[in-house]
Predict the 3D structure of the following.
Amino acid sequence: MTIKLYVYILSIMDINKSLIEIGIKLSSERNLDRLLYLILQSARYICNADAGSLYLKEEKHLCFAVSQNATLEIKMGSEEFRKLFSPHTIPISNKSIAGWSAANKKVLNLGDVYQIKNAPYSFDRKFDKETGYRCHSMLTVPMKDKEDNLIGVFQLINKRKADKIEPFTKDDEKVAEALASQASVAINNVQLTEEIKAAHLETIYKLGLAAEYKDEETGNHIRRMSEFSKIIAESLGLDEGFIETIYHASPLHDVGKIGIPDNILTKAGKLTPEEWKIMKGHTILGYQLLKDSHSKIMQIASEIAYTHHERWDGKGYPRGLSKEEIPLTGRVVSLADFFDAVTSSRPYRDKPFPLPKTLRIIKEEAGKHFCPKIVDAFFDSIDRIKEIHYILSEGVRS
Ligand SMILES: [Fe+2]
Ligand SMILES: [Fe+2]
């Protein structure tokens, strides 16, 4: 075996190993933006490309998703480089390079895009003129699923070898195509997961909405109070996971009202002690309804349903918990719910409290009704709270 052949076999083995490693990485990424970035970065790495872009198919267009460029990112900084791109689409047609590759579902390997002759597509030099960059070689690869449906395309620009720019090779084409099919599977999986997640969140929200409608409340109450809960959680400096969970779980705080008779729920006058006892039971009903779910959001929602009427001083219901015995989620939602309930109108109740009066009460109730730390966080973000209160008020948007 000649040394040249031995080195070639070693390099093929290396590429196969890299492809396997990349495949594992791609399949474990759950966020679409991060996945697309990773696909392009991997394709550039494996073919030694200076730059590249990735587009996803949407109906008859390719939608720009991500772009990377080692030379420009060093020259101008990654932040400034990203500002060069705004959302745009390319028609899937033979007129552009990416469009041709998408329309024909074929790889297009061009040695120098400034030398294209006798082809239906042309190269748009606008980006080069604006940035001073010079595109030479370009490898455009369609990403297709198992049924040969187009998912998108990626383009690799300027193959680097030592200090020179060269055309992409036949081997690059093969490797990039192998990567493209791995990428398609990963994109399909993430899109499916995102769809299921969106449907799951929508179902949770609609369930909360059903309970609020029964209370003759408008849908905006749960929208506002989930926004307030999120703002308070952010103001407390809690982690992203907690913030997202409380945002999606808080609309279910009153889901137990589904089990409360209408004549009690919407009674115009004062409730009798017996009726009040039944009304308070919405906390326990909500908890029982949600507690056995495997979903993290549902579990937190059951905790919120159970504890959103507890008070810091122990005078709340249903269990009379006090201080830190009340979970943080319950303490946050308690204030968000109170603020929205008293500042918005309900058909069977007196007029809403004016904002200054409500804020005064909240301040006075720190350490009594509400956790002092949560009250501080609420006032730290009062401008954002007021903004949401205004934008989502009944008169402004329904
Ligand atoms: Fe409630
Ligand atoms: Fe509520």
The longest helix spans residues 170-214. DSSP finds 17 helices and seven strands in the chain. The beta strands are 49-58, 61-69, 89-91, 108-110, 138-144, 150-161, 164-166. The longest strand covers residues 150-161.
